[in-house]
Amino acid sequence: MPGLSTALALLTVFAVAALLRDRLGAAAALGVALAGTFLIVSAVGLILLDLGRLQPWPLRLALLAAFSAFVLLAGVARRRLPRATPTPVLHARPLALGLGVLLVTGVGLRLAPSPYLQGGQDQGIYVNVGHHIARTGRLRPVDRLLRGAVRGVPQADVLAAYRVKPLAADSPLVGVREGRWAAGLHIEDARAGRLVPAFFPLMPVWFAIAELDGGFARSTWPLVLFWALSALALFALARRLAQDSDDPLVRRRAGTLGLVALAGLALHPLDLWISSFTVTENLARACLLAAAWLALEAGAAERDGRPGARLLALLGGLCFAAGAFTRGSLVAHAIVLAGALLLGRGDAPRTRRALLGALVVGTTLAVVQAVLHSWPYFFSAAANHFHVPRLTPRPAVAVAWTLAAGLALLLVELGLRRLPARLCGLARRSLRLAAGLALALAAVGFVRQGLVTTGADQQVLAVLVRHGGPLPLLLGLVGLGLAVRRADARLLPWLVLAAAIVLEAALKSGVRYEFYYARYFIADLVPALTIAAACLSGHIITRLERRRGPRLAALACGALLLAWLVPPLRLLPREVYWTRDLADDPEQLTSLFGHVPEDALLLFDDRAPGRWRGLLAVPALLSFGRNALAVPPGGHIVEGALKAGTPVLLLSGGWEPDDRQRWPSADSGPWRTRVIARGIYQAPRAETVEGGVPARLHDGGGPWELQQLDRSIWRSSGAFSLYPDSMFVTATATGFNIEPLPLPAGARVELWLPTGLSCDVTAKLDTDPLPLTPLPRQPDGPLLWSLPPTPPQTAALTIAATCDGAFAWRWLSVRAEP
């Protein structure tokens, strides 16, 4: 029943928002409904994933129970909470109309999220792992080749092909990371064939839920939801910051400033690309913005004496923690925010404590799950991105460290509750100083980037100016600086986090290929600068109105908006923004891998389009459950599979003229193959450039050809072995004959029969015909014939047999005498 989970989620949002609207206010009630529903779906998905039961009916029943409990709790809260005093909203109808238009525009621009399914990059791994979860209900794939469960392929040979080395018994890598399978996948337990994805699992869980609800083609549609949540949170956050201003004119324009911020995000070309692509930054950004909005809304509710303040703070902390379940950098952000919350003690102590407690507990659980599920990624990412020493503790030790760190933070919070007022003021000043210093260093970093001549086009500053224009960047940086200077204690922790995000981006040396790597540096930076720019523009227009009058202020506002929003529009028509880099069609891969039997051994060659092995081995294994060998196969692996009767298929980029082909192998001679399927694979790619906007697309796909290796084994000397069911063999009632094949000089014919079969067998060449001379046979050995001293270069063999029963044979060899 596709769509059932989606319908339940929407009904829950509407029901909870309606129940709490007259208790918390419309904005807070909607925030509680959206955040609660989002957290419920995330928690249910992760719990079912841990149980290995993320499948259609367990998911639907669990969501139904959780949503029902959420609505019931909202009903109980409605009875217990007092009715809130309605707060009039200035220009409510135009505000709602503008919000609706911008949301529809932003979502409409992003309605076709990338269906990227190739596995050689992070974004393909996310989709494929999500599809694997939807198929199996569990996170960890099991590679039957590694486990030794494919006929004729010894486990030792596969382990050697993947370069899996024996580990010492006391190594912390045993059962954790025993080798690497392909990009994004690690061998967790080689003997059991168990793999583990090298990233945090929440976003693939959302993809799996979407697929279980709406089918494979809809698996990436949560990207649209993530952007819609980000957009709503950004609008509400900018509006809340303006409502907390000391200037009454700014407060009156709070809704307008929220719309300006939302327009800046919706029309930003880089945001358009990032938000439509299958990368974790989309989900992490939604969590970050939602957490900031709910936390500031909670603080305002406590100061105003409105109900629900602690609930909003708890949901804000949990939303931030959900981001930590998504991406490793959010763990670093959580550490920064937790430290700032410990020191920044404002006039809303209850909500601050609730926010800190939820943040610490949730992030601790996120790190624990990352250690248990993504141990290799967690510590390697910490070393690569945050330049800390690469640690390799045992998982139990890492979990103990994590729990101890979380508990220590909570104990520090208890110890600081009675901090003297003088020390509280000193702590706040230190936070302000730290944020100001971070922004100053970021400014120096951006100036240095602007002065760089080598690779200047690929610096973060150049990318931001190229795609969004200089004005919002300047307004954002100046706005953050002024906010740090003037902000009170309730806003300081979030400004410290924003300053850390800006500093991290400014210190990076470059983004290389911006349409892939830019997301690492600016996915969080663009929303932060957009909000700061919107708030600063509101203060500028307000001050201008006081000094020069409303007419000139209105003209200045129009000019400012045109200078901000129009320049990025010149980039939006470029087709690259509508396809996203490396987009492809899941239906194409479905039709391709549909020709591969489930018990087959799938190999890849390196013909164009390039990197077939790395790009397509991952979806073959994860999304389609095929036995894919992701490394170049040794001849003995292929030979063993063919001898055992396992179908061996080769996926090749490019076509050959014939339907019967040769696939060369360095260590065992060419293999004979038969083409069983052909097609054209379309994969539009953005032109990859270092600096500059990709101006065109090129097709990264091309012709593909699926070949089945024949049950014949060829040596470089020209010798070969044929097996029953080979396409070169034609069976008759009393024997068989083979097609004309090369006969190497000095070779002999060997026919292996099943043990105990008694037959009178003769062999001849069809070229005269020429009977072959039998040779002595060893007990239980093959029947032997000698070829003429100068055999023809190509000839067909005919085998005739008279047996007591049915004639059967194991294989026929033509090879040099030992």
TrEMBL record:
Domain of life: Bacteria
Keyword Transcription regulation attached: no
Transmembrane regions listed in the UniProt entry: 27-49, 61-78, 90-112, 221-242, 254-274, 311-343, 355-375, 395-412, 433-451, 463-484, 491-511, 517-540, 552-572
UniProt keyword list: Membrane, Transmembrane, Transmembrane helix
Protein name: Glycosyltransferase RgtA/B/C/D-like domain-containing protein
